[in-house]
Amino acid sequence: MLEIIYKDTDIVIIRKPYGLDCQYQIPQFLKQQLSCDIYTVHRLDTIVTGVMVFCLNQKSAAILSKEITEKVFKKEYLAIIEGCFKEQQNRLTDLLFHDKKVNKTYVVKKKRKGVKEAILEYRQLCSINNNSLLLIRLLTGRTHQIRVQLASRSHPIIGDGKYGSNDNGKIQLFCYHISFVHPTNQMVMDFKLLPSQSSLFDTFKNHLKEGELCEKY
Questions:
Q1: The pLDDT value given to residue 198
Q2: How many Cβ atoms from other residues are within 10 Å of residue 56's Cβ?
């Protein structure tokens, strides 16, 4: 059973578990669990966990998809990286190309077919044992964007072997916060989750108090 945080007639909010694909597997599980159709409107990589919203009808899915395109839909992540940035806060902008054949994204220097601009903002919250905890605001939604933008600056996410981490454990990237306008009642929906205490994030538990995180941006 998937952990459901909130549900109404239009949307359902879940804690996405590790190892499930959000385009096929999770909709199938939710359909069985809720006995209704499920529509994916945004994605997390299979190996990434955190808060997600799914829609229960096509109309709501179309509205939320439009919010994502128009940047009304907000997402923030927590990540633990190798090393630390010199700048405690910064905006990272890159041109990215995703190679579907190998399912890997690359930073490139020039625009061409398939190349898209990627932008994120981060705030470095603290560093412990040469690892750093980041709070990341995603301003565009490119495939593997956070992973490759951090790795390209020699700060791969812990556990992300695909992009250069030497750690063989689970990737330490968590979707912590989503915010959007409800597709029917127009209310602002705001959901925050903290990572499981069984993860490496527990090392930073003193810096993962929700009240303190809310003040960081």
A1: 67
A2: 20
Q: Tokens 């690359």 correspond to what residue?
A: 106
- Determine the pLDDT at residue 192: 95
Copy the structure tokens of residue 191.
């959901």
Going by C-beta distance under 8 Å and a sequence separation of 6 or more, which residues neighbour residue 211?
Answer: none
Residues of the chain where predicted confidence (pLDDT) is lower than 70: 197-198, 209-217
Q: What is the CA radius of gyration of the chain?
A: 17
pTM value surpassing 0.85: yes
Residue written as tokens 């590790």? Answer: 18
Two tokens, residue 118: 């990627």
* ∠ Cα 3 6 7 (to 5°): 105
Nearest residue to 5 (alpha-carbon basis) of 194, 213, 181: 194
**Closest of 103, 78, 40 to residue 171, by C-alpha:** 78
**Whole-angstrom Cα distance, residue 157 to residue 80?**
6
